[in-house]
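Incident review: delayed structure delivery

Summary: a single-chain prediction request sat in the queue longer than the usual turnaround. Root cause was a stuck worker, restarted by the on-call engineer. No data loss occurred. The affected request and its eventual output are reproduced below so the record is complete for anyone auditing the incident later.

Affected input:
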Amino acid sequence: MNATSGVDLATHGISPVNTFTAMGWAMIRLARPHMFVAGALLYGIGVALASSYAGSVDLGLAFSGLFAVFFGQISGQIANDYWDMKGDDSSKRTFFSGGSGILTRGILRPQTALKGAIVSCVFAALLGIIIVLWYGAGIFTVPIILGGTLGGWLYSAEPIRLVSTGLGEVVVSGIVSYFPIVAGFYIQTDTLALDTIIVGALLTMFLFPVFLSVEFPDYDADERSRKRNLLVRFGLRSTTRLYAATMLLPYLVLFAFVSVGWITPLALVILATMPLAMFGASRALRLSRADFKDAAFVTMTSMVVIVMTMALMLFSLIFD
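Output delivered after worker restart:
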């Protein structure tokens, strides 16, 4: 039994992989690369804001920063799988929830995963140092990269474990939104600007219901493992109402930001995602605990909405 996770790997009947190739492939699956799409888009938004601010960007620097952000995300994804093993062991996995299954099925040893998360964090920091020394980026490059990485860890990691405080969904929505945007902007400009705060705030609002939706398929497993996230604290009815409200609220904020000139009017193209968001909200309001497939569908809908929103925001900034 793993002392940290409380999961007896021997019961799964699968021996951990022990070849370098198999271990590397398992580590890639553990990191869940499909989850990096949002991070890449957010980082691109930061670079696009930097281009508007400075008039141009260094593409070599941009790609170096992107790799640093990727390693930070890899570290956070693996760390969350490690610390969530007990709850994920009884979850029904979907493409976006329930963990990767690599640890709960015994394909990798938990300590191997934890070492991978630490090594990825170190790589992110080393890339940040290289960016500072080679490209002359600002001295806060490394703290920004590590801040986003460690913030991701704190969502599930003991002893803080934000997910069980009732604040995890809000805090991590901000971390996930702001740090890639700030990294993309700061690495190029050595400064910060109000635009990053405004765009980050809007995208944090769009991200919050996504984190709620990921909890829906895991409701029973989270309750059994006493995870104490918002869904477990307030129950399905209250949380689905909160989800529905927060799926639609960001569109009103978008209108307000455009009307006062804080965001380019071209960003109104994001309204194209509103019908899908409304559809997801209406499905969520009809969820019951037994509706695992519907819960997974709501999660998938939320993911499609947020990726489209980020892509359209990036489009509006590039072509403004």
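Verification: The chain has one domain: 9-318.
Action items: add queue-age alerting; document worker restart procedure.
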